Amino acid sequence: VRYADGKGWYDARVEPRAPIPMDPAAAVLHYAQEIFEGLKAYKMADGGVAMFRPDANALRFVKSAERMAMPPLAPAAFLQSLREIIRIDQDWIPQSDEGSLYLRPYAFASEVFLGVRPALEYLYLVIASPVGAYFSGGIKPVSVWATPDYTRAAPGGTGAAKCGGNYAAGLSAQADAIEHGCDQVVYLDAVERKYVDELGGMNVFFVLDDGSLATPPLTGTILPGITRDSVIKLAERAGHQVVERPVSLDEWREGAASGRIREAFACGTAAVITPIGTIKSLDGEFTVADGGSGEVTMALRKQLVDIQRGRAADPFGWVHRVL
Ligand code: PMP
Questions:
Q1: Ligand 1, atom 10, residue with closest C-alpha
Q2: C-alpha dist (Å) from residue 53 to 7, 64, 114, 238, 270
Q3: Which of 32, 212, 275, 301 has the least C-beta neighbours within 10 A?
């Protein structure tokens, strides 16, 4: 779908995947005016096909557009584009319980000019790709590197938007995490460099010894994850109190040592919910409990996956059936 100032979104079409012509002066190539979403279509227990909370992705896409001074795409058009590509690519949806068709809607500034201002022309596209299980051979806790060198977002920055630039800025941090023998980076807040923000592509939760859950608040420096929101609702339904509050790396370390923090997990569309195993920082490394898969973590994971796959009732109306 194209956008031109004064004309709005127009020219929606489906084409076989192929390179798209880009002018060397297309604004996105210079100033990174680009946003995206990531979600999955998958087979349900009854053989149908569904997406999980795509309306939430549509709203986040609108908010990301606002932050990046881009024209919003109406949620109805966003949803229609996804339904259309799923219908066309339905034979590519893996049958397996763990596989899915990954959907990547994105929009970028295509106008040709070199000044620094919001563009007047954009392209919105969706690509789809089959993906297998995130964890092959069972769930494996992720290890994280609490980076002393990088932050993901500062107050007033673009942390709450799903824009490509955030991820470009995170590549060095992720490389650093891998160099320290960890799977993922865990970002600390930009102001005090103390409080846990999120991982490179997942939000974080802590399970405390009183059965409550704590998760960093949405203050604009972390991505408002749709899995995060779902976990909060499922945990509350299961009788856990969920508190959105800052949790420092010190509290994490001390809580792990004292038993006040029983479990830590990360969540996002790709892995759904995954335990956090080892936490490494300049002060050394530690694990929460034995660094394995905690009981509350795994119970929440099962509840969420069962709703997604149609094996459990859908009390919140999250499952969006397509076929
Ligand atoms: N934080 C970041 C930085 C992410 O890229 C993602 C993945 N979109 C998440 C959190 C989790 O968000 P969601 O649950 O919507 O996938």
A1: 202
A2: 30, 17, 38, 20, 14
A3: 212
